[in-house]
UniProtKB/TrEMBL annotation:
Matching SUPFAM superfamilies: C-terminal effector domain of the bipartite response regulators, P-loop containing nucleoside triphosphate hydrolases, TPR-like
CDD domains named in the record: BTAD
OmpR/PhoB-type domain location: 1-98
Ranges of the DNA-binding region feature: 1-98
Identification of the protein by name: ATPase AAA
Keywords, sorted A to Z: DNA-binding, Transcription, Transcription regulation
GO annotation, biological process: phosphorelay signal transduction system; regulation of DNA-templated transcription
UniProt cross-references to InterPro entries, sorted A to Z: AAA_16, AfsR-DnrI-RedD_regulator, BTAD, OmpR/PhoB-type_DNA-bd, P-loop_NTPase, Sig_transdc_resp-reg_C-effctor, TPR-like_helical_dom_sf, WH-like_DNA-bd_sf
GTP-binding found in the keyword field: no
One MF term in the entry's GO annotations: DNA binding
Keyword Transcription recorded: yes
Family, similarity comment: Belongs to the AfsR/DnrI/RedD regulatory family.
Length: 1076
């Protein structure tokens, strides 16, 4: 864990997520303990802070409750009666017992102390690095959550003083190395903010002197003298007087000789970024550096400088430039990079990227990069990247398959769309420890002065240039080139075009619509002027610094800002006509650049004919994206196609239905299950209006695919699925149609909660028979998956084994890894049930590894959930909770599975509360879940279990009330021989919980019935329940101690053999009860 006060107060868990540390006052207690590390905070101090006036009568108990809740957050896996190890009780109060490196303020203090030691030893370079590491711990204003609280005023003042001292110490170390010129801007701002701080002012003057600005340095000291005299009536201290004397004497020691290498920074005002980029390309290891900022701020220039450094160091450097617009094919920037690598490597690398699945494509990219050793990939203009390229970047940032890879990516932070793919990718990347992000800002006035001086311009114009250009390096360059200050950037472009040949604007605006790189052969066919004139115009544009020659017959704009200006100046109708002409030329030439053609047809829509072509090419581009496993891109294409349908001359409902079905498939593959449901509902409604049975069947089955069915733990959205499936089954589909077999199987599973389980198994078997007659492997595998899921609640273990083996066989034979994975997940559950621990653990490892490679959210989630169950059963509850929470975190925001997985993890919280004897909190949790999922039987059973716990733990009168409520609830479960519960008997904890409730309530008759249901499972796990342990309890309830002892010994043997340590305490308690 990482404790933080140098910014918003919080705790970061081991998985990198922020822990929920409770309401405001509880977080105050945590903040007080953090600030005091390692000393304890007295209880009275906490009370004084929490209640400034008179504390309430129960103040001590309230603080103790806050401490207790914080302990549960900080040590969720701590057993009951085990002393806390993090938030501990000490004489005089409470303390956080954590090492200094687990606390941001502790780390800052350690770096500061080490910096002081190095400075004293004369190691100024090392000292500066340590002081800067200390400063990096700040994430904003310290104690930001409590900025207005009176108790925090002294603490924030102390921390502000600490930070300012670090700034001074770091500057002093840099000045000892002669780095004053780079410090002038920052020190000037600090002096302005703290005008009476003498040491800071002296350091600022020293930096100015090192930068060759003696007069400015003396002026800074004089200003300090004036302020001291006028405001405080004091004379300057010895530091100021000594610095002034040494400057006037031009003391050589003030400007130490510094070794300057050829690699010294070339870009003004980017020293820190340049140093970090140099480290990134020079050192070994996996690194990603993100460069963000507005257009023209210098992102690409920094990346080019880093690329040159990397090449000088012998690294292979390749570029991937993103295409402005929606016309780039999937993985476009990566494809460019790989093409360059494959060409350098002598061939064939690209061929390996075809075929297989999405994870195989990702691994092929990683493998090809790894073959070239230490590679630098520069991705330029990431704000235009397609979603699939961003997903691949996330993968390559986390994989270990290419340890020599360094990525530098630039993007416009002004163009990051809230909720978009880039925002999601950036959120994932910046959490990684080997990812650094720099947000470039405009040059300050001092830096502009340096820029102008180095360019041979008048440095005295720095203030004027700062006002006019906001320090944007591109704008500064344009000013210097033109020799005058433009009012608008468009004036710059028009000024350069003024002396160019006629028709220049037509040619360059067409080139601007073609993209960053304009291919000459395409451009010649798009514009009207003859070839010779167009070529003359392009040459003239190169001389005017509007274009630059690229590789081959390609011209590239010198900056995207120039393109922006040209495009924005185009009248709307002319722009659309040019887009249409570009699309027609691309279509005539090859017709294979589907995404690009689709983009230009969409942008060029003026009439019905163009709308139809735009929809057609956009749909083909979506199919191409799907074939390349770029599912997010396919979603975007299909959404654009659907938006165009209303612009057709006549409504085409069949086309709309097909596009919605395609969209739902792409959304489901991308993990957008909520959106997929909405698309399917719309498609089903249209299919019914059309009377189209096949389309209705496809809509009905949309989210009943293999993975969704494998997530049998939760069936959220059943009503929507069941309604669609029933409507499709009632249609006129032929008996031999594969659709009917799939629909019947889906109905068997989806409706299993509302009918006798035997009837559902009969429907599943019927679906399998229909699938075998249809002769379609995919249909057969889907029906077998449903049959296996329903057999988990029965006793025909041989049939279930045969079904599992056939699912695996179909998956292997057809190369369908998803089907094989589902079969092996079923095999894992079967092995666990029979206590074959070794085989189960090997299968679980394969499931997790394969799910991580395939990268389907639902598959990763299910693998994590099975790992959570395994951890729980083997006696590792903290790991179980962590894995269960992981199973929900993999889903995108808004996906159905995210909420379901989160609720599943609450099961472990409930069991932990029971284990700690906190029955009231366990009951509250069960009721909270039932409010979200009304009537869900497993949670009703857990609620009943919590009621019995309260009945045993409280006094006679309240305990009797709890037991009475539990008895009434249990009577409903036991009605008609547990008929309502039988479908859930193998569900997780159900058998064990029912047996325990039955024993506590003393319901002998219900116990005998339940025993009969459990008897066929002797020697096995039923869900998470050891069947023999359940039956031992029930036999003892029935007064048959001999039979109870036999079952107890069988349960003990099973637990030892299978390693199911979660039941050790229950077995010991039952053994003790039997021996009494």
């Amino acid at each position: 864990m990482d404790f933080r006060v140098l910014g918003p107060v919080g705790v970061i868990g081991d998985d990198g997520t922020s822990l929920d540390t409770g309401p405001h006052q509880q977080r105050v207690v945590l903040a007080l303990c953090m600030l005091a590390i390692p000393q304890p905070v007295p209880l009275n101090r906490m009370i004084d802070v929490l209640w400034e006036d008179e504390p309430p009568p129960g103040a001590v108990n309230t603080v103790q409750a806050y401490v207790s809740k914080l302990r549960r957050v900080l040590e969720p896996g701590r057993r009951r009666n085990t002393p806390p190890a993090v938030l501990v009780s000490r004489p005089g109060g409470y303390a956080l017992d954590v090492p200094a490196d687990a606390f941001d303020l502790g780390r800052a203090r350690a770096h500061a102390a080490e910096g002081g030691r190095r400075a004293a030893a004369g190691d100024h370079r090392g000292a500066g690095e340590e002081f800067r590491r200390a400063l990096e711990e700040w994430r904003g204003e310290p104690l930001a959550d409590f900025a207005q609280a009176p108790w925090a005023e002294g603490e924030t003042a102390h921390l502000a003083e600490f930070r300012l001292t670090l700034e001074e110490d770091a500057a002093e170390a840099d000045l000892a190395l002669g780095r004053g010129e780079a410090l002038t801007g920052r020190l000037s701002r600090l002096v302005a903010a703290h005008p009476l701080r003498e040491r800071l002012r002296v350091l600022g003057a020293h930096a100015l002197y090192q930068a060759g600005r003696q007069a400015d340095a003396l002026a800074v000291l004089a200003e300090g003298r004036r302020l001291l005299v006028e405001d405080l009536g004091l004379d300057p201290g010895p530091r100021s007087r000594e610095m002034e004397r040494r400057i006037l004497a031009q003391d050589p020691a003030l400007t130490p000789r510094v070794h300057v290498t050829a690699e010294a920074p070339r870009l003004v005002g980017r020293e820190a970024e340049t140093a970090e980029l140099r480290r990134a390309v020079a050192e070994d290891g996996h690194r990603v550096v993100l460069l963000a900022g507005e257009p023209g701020i210098g992102k690409t220039s920094l990346a080019e400088q880093a690329a040159a450094t990397a090449e000088a160091l012998g690294r292979r450097v390749v570029w991937g430039r993103c295409w402005d617009g929606t016309g780039a094919p999937p993985f476009w920037p990566w494809t460019q990079a790989v093409q360059e690598l494959a060409g350098a490597g002598g061939g064939g690398g690209l061929g390996r990227l075809a075929g297989g699945g999405r994870f195989e494509l990702y691994e092929a990219f990683a493998g090809l990069l790894n073959e070239h050793g230490r590679v630098l990939v520069v991705l330029d203009d990431l704000q235009w990247a397609d979603a699939s390229s961003l997903r691949l970047l996330e993968f390559l940032a986390t994989t270990r398959l290419c340890p020599g890879l360094t990525v530098i990516a630039t993007y416009r932070d002004t163009d990051v769309r809230p909720g978009g793919a880039l925002e999601h990718a950036l959120g994932a990347l910046v959490r990684l420890p080997h990812v650094r992000r720099f947000v470039l800002r405009g040059l300050d006035e001092t830096e502009i002065r340096h820029y102008l001086g180095r360019a041979g311009a008048d440095p005295e114009r720095a203030a004027e240039m700062a006002r006019l250009t906001a320090g944007n390096p591109f704008f500064l360059g344009e000013v210097l080139h033109l020799g005058e200050t433009p009012g608008e950037l468009s004036d710059v472009v028009r000024g350069r075009m003024a002396g160019l040949p006629p028709d220049t604007e037509e040619v360059l605006t067409a080139a601007a619509l073609l993209g960053r790189d304009a291919a000459t052969d395409i451009l010649l066919r798009v514009v009207e002027p003859p070839e010779d004139r167009v070529l003359d115009i392009l040459d003239a544009a190169v001389r005017a610094r509007l274009l630059a020659e690229g590789d081959g017959p390609v011209f590239r704009f010198v900056h995207d800002i120039v393109r922006d200006v040209l495009r924005e100046a185009l009248p709307p109708v002319r722009r659309r006509r040019l887009h249409t002409r570009i699309a027609e030329v691309l279509e005539e030439r090859s017709g294979t650049r589907l995404t690009e053609i689709a983009h230009h047809y969409r942008e060029g829509v003026l009439g019905a004919r163009m709308t139809g072509r735009a929809i057609g090419y956009t749909r083909r581009a979506a199919a191409q994206a799907t074939a390349q496993f770029a599912h997010e891109d396919a979603v975007e294409h299909l959404e654009r196609a659907i938006a165009l349908i209303d612009r057709l001359p006549r409504s085409d409902d069949a086309l709309r239905c097909d596009l919605l079905l395609d969209l739902a498939e792409a959304q489901a593959a991308a993990g957008m299950s909520t959106a997929a449901h909405a698309s399917l509902e719309s498609a089903a409604g249209i299919a019914e209006e059309l009377g189209d049975d096949n389309r209705l069947a496809r809509a009905a089955l949309g989210l009943s695919d293999q993975i969704y069915l494998a997530m049998y733990e939760e069936v959220t959205g059943v009503e929507r699925l069941a309604g669609r499936i029933d409507r499709a089954l009632a249609s006129d589909l032929a008996e031999e149609s594969p659709w009917r077999a799939r629909l019947l199987a889906a109905s068997a599973f989806i409706g299993s909660t509302g009918r006798p389980v035997e009837r559902s198994r009969e429907l599943a078997a019927q679906a399998v028979r229909l699938a075998r007659r249809a002769g379609d492997d995919q249909t057969l595998s889907r029906t077998l998956i449903v049959q296996e899921l329903l057999l988990r609640t029965g006793h025909d273990h041989d049939l279930r084994r045969e079904v599992v083996e056939e699912i695996i066989e179909i998956g292997i034979r057809t190369g369908d890894l998803v089907t094989e994975w589902i079969g092996r997940e079923a095999e894992y559950v079967r092995l666990i049930a029979q206590g074959t621990t070794g085989g189960a653990e090997r299968t679980l490892a394969w499931l997790r590894e394969t799910a991580a490679r395939i990268r389907l959210p639902s598959m990763i989630s299910l693998a994590a959930w099975q790992a959570a169950v395994h951890a729980y059963l083997t006696g590792r509850p903290a790991e179980a909770l962590a894995a269960a929470e992981e199973s929900g975190a993999v889903y995108p925001e808004g996906a159905l599975g995210r909420g379901d997985a989160r609720l599943r993890s609450e099961t472990f919280r409930f069991l932990a509360l029971r284990r700690e004897g906190r029955a009231a909190e366990a009951l509250a949790l069960a009721e909270e879940i039932l409010a979200l999922r009304p009537g869900q039987r497993p949670w009703r059973i857990l609620r009943c279990l919590a009621l019995t716990d309260l009945g045993r733990s409280e006094g006679a009168r309240p305990g009797k009330a709890w037991v009475g409520e539990a008895r009434a609830e249990f009577a409903g479960f036991a009605r008609d021989g547990f008929a309502e519960i039988l479908p859930d008997l193998s569900y997780r904890f159900v058998a064990d919980a029912l047996g325990e409730i039955c024993s506590v309530l003393g319901d002998v008759e219900a116990g005998r019935v339940l025993y009969g249901h459990l008897a066929p499972e002797a020697g096995r796990l039923l869900g998470w329940s050891v069947a023999d342990l359940c039956m031992a309890r029930l036999a003892l309830l029935d007064g048959d101690r001999k039979r109870a002892g036999e079952h107890l010994r069988a349960a003990q043997g099973f637990v030892r053999r299978a390693g199911v340590r979660a039941y050790d305490l229950a077995l010991d308690a039952l053994a003790e009860e039997l021996s009494a």
